[in-house]
Amino acid sequence: MTREPYPTARREEATDNLHGTPVRDPYRWLEEPDGPETKGWLLAQAELFNRERGPQRFKSRIAELLRSGSVGVPAWRGGRHFFSRRIPDQEHPVYYVVEPDGTERALIDPIGIDPSGLTTLDAVQPDKEGRLLAYQISVGGNEESVLYVIDVATGQRVEGPIDRCRYSPVAWLPGGEAFYYVRRLPSTEVPENETQFHRRVYLHRVGTSTEDDVMIFGQDLKMTNYYGVAVSRDGRWLQVSAHEGTAPRNDIWLADLTESPVDRPELRVVQEGVDAQSALVFGRDGVLYVHTDRDAPRGRVCVADPAAPAFGTWRDLIPEDPEAVLSDFAILDDLERPVMLVAWTRHAISEITVHDLETGERVGEVPTPGLGTIGGIAEHPEGGHEAWFGYTDNTTPPTIQRYDARTGETTLWAASPGAVEVPEVRTQQVVYQSHDGTDVRMLIISPAGEASGPRPTILYGYGGFGLSMTPGYSASILAWVEAGGVYAIANLRGGGEEGEDWHRAGMLASKQNVFDDFHAAAEHLIATGVTTREQLGISGGSNGGLLVGAALTQRPELYSAVVCSAPLLDMIRYEKFGLGATWNVEYGSADDPEQFGWLRAYSPYHHVKEGVAYPATLFTVFQSDTRVHPMHAWKMCAALQHSTTSERPVLLRNETEVGHGARSVSRTVDLSADSLTFLARHTGL
Fold first, then answer.
1. How confident is the model at residue 379 (pLDDT cuts 50, 70, 90)?
2. At residue 93, does pLDDT exceed 60?
3. Kind of pairing, strands 349-356 and 339-346?
4. Candidates 660, 672, 675, 682; catalytic one
5. Among candidates 179, 163, 227, which has minimal Cα distance to 199?
6. What is the mean pLDDT of the segment spanning 327-338?
């Protein structure tokens, strides 16, 4: 059957000459979202998608599995603790406080703020005494966080709105009268195309105008810098850190606030111009603990004197493990023998070990519920013998576990509140070889019981920014596997599963390794009988959208179907849109002749060729995405529709009033159902 024609997309003769190389861009006009031609094309694409969509499978089952809800790791302040929870049928998690007597109250309910569901809670930070709470919200997916402060006892707002606070940490001074935070310069003070950048660190005194805020750091530094700021529990030490964009390195400065005023802190260099990442934790014992990958790509913990924190004084407490990545630690000191709990991921599986706080000697391990993922270890800021950590795996919704160092026992402290029937699945981790002989791991989730021949399979990957793909509860994965499919997650280079060296083996000039690892994963699944080429779909979002975009242009014959979500696809012009300028430390810049060569070698949009039978492809993009501009998917969709000789469809699902990050549960269900329905149709599930 001959498919209906695609919506008309004009091809223009836009060509840039970059470093002596002509680069064609026939759909440059689709970079203008408000242009009449773009709007008409998007409307026609929406009509096509709705005609092709067909009955939405999986929707009710995904919604049912999401009724598990969720629960977050507690933060302890004074006698209170704070946490998030989402109950069944709630669109967003709610942030709560629990009083010392056990009374629980909701503090921030996004639906209470905005019944439309378009408002999301981006960040929270209680003050050191638990009396005030800073929180940040944004609307419609734009992630442009606005900061407020409320009185915890009354729920009354005492501060805000303070705008331009996207990705801002909040570092309270003791007493709750002031905090340090990060804010962008006003748009009136920067060029029009740089309004997303130019951050500064400020001191704000609660109850005063932001006009009176004092800038303490960031002047004359790089416009793409992100800043971290933290104040020790006793209020003595201020640390400020700076990352150039998303670079895997940072600079750190430290000030003693007993020796200089809080509005003019004398910041001294701890680490500057070093190709490594470090973070400082000020112990209750007066020791400075340094979590670093400096000379240790998998991470280590060092100790130093905060008054003299130069690198040459650092002493190993927890040395680097040759096979596990050190991800977090917590100190329990209300014991005869104080200990440090150290969280690791060993080939993407989490574990926690127990060490003597003085010597670093390993003295035990923390029992965990299974082979899964541990998130954030919390302790009492004033000290104690207990710790709390999040845990999830492929069949376990988020839980909070409590560890008691006096007994050595781990117990369930809080479970996700919804009771759901989770299907039985079989999970295995396999090792396969990439093109250059590198061993790569992959998690394969399949129906329980004996394997019965090849099955429709989704292969998922990310491979970037040092982010690790670890086991976790996913309604979409479970719904797919319950229906008879297989879901595979590859731990590609570019991620953080094997430490910083693993990340760097898949960035900049080495980015092709990520795509080769992915192709090899697909070939392994086919060679071992898990699936066939006709039954293999691939899926990825954001940097993972770049991954599957490169996969479908490099090896179109290897994949039957593709879901490409919020992707980067025009790697020649990506820096000109959204937050792209902060990612050139990961990908490279087309302004540099050598780096232009890296990008041009794989940029998916520029490798679409006429006369090729491309896989069935669904682009899912979000109109309010301020990180990755939807133009990437729009241009790539037009190029594929023009070029493919296949009868398999190329479709665009363009969603408004949502962005790159958090969204309501109902919108999550719709997106997941549409994606799985498309993959099922074109893999034979």
1. very high
2. yes
3. antiparallel
4. 660
5. 227
6. 97
Mean pLDDT of the chain: 97
Nearest CA to 503 out of 489, 519, 514 is that of: 514
Q: Does residue 73 contact residue 387 with C-beta atoms inside 8 Å?
A: no
* 3-class DSSP assignment, residue 610: coil
21-63+421-683 has CATH 1.10.3720.10 classification: no
Q: Is 116 a catalytic residue?
A: no
Q: Are 514 and 494 in contact (CB under 8 A)?
A: yes
| Identity of residue 386 | E
Question: Average pLDDT for residues 302-313, to the nearest whole number?
Answer: 96
Active site residue 660: yes
Q: Which of 400, 412, 420 is nearest to 68 (CA)?
A: 420
Domain ranges of the chain: 21-63+421-683, 70-168, 321-417
Catalytic residue among 68, 476, 542, 560, which? Answer: 542
Band of pLDDT at residue 2, cut at 50, 70 and 90: low
Cβ atoms of 339 and 363 within 8 Å: the answer is yes
CA dist., res. 3 & res. 420, Å (int): 41
Q: How many helices (H) and strands (E) does the chain have?
A: 11, 39
pLDDT (average), residues 13-41:
97
pLDDT at residue 377 tops 60: yes
Q: How far is Cα 340 from Cα 322, in angstroms, rounded to an integer?
A: 20
- From edge to edge, which strands make up the β-sheet containing 157-162? 119-126, 132-139, 146-151, 157-162
User: Phi, psi at residue 350, to the nearest 5°?
Assistant: -85, 150
| Separation CA 493–CA 497 (nearest Å) | 8
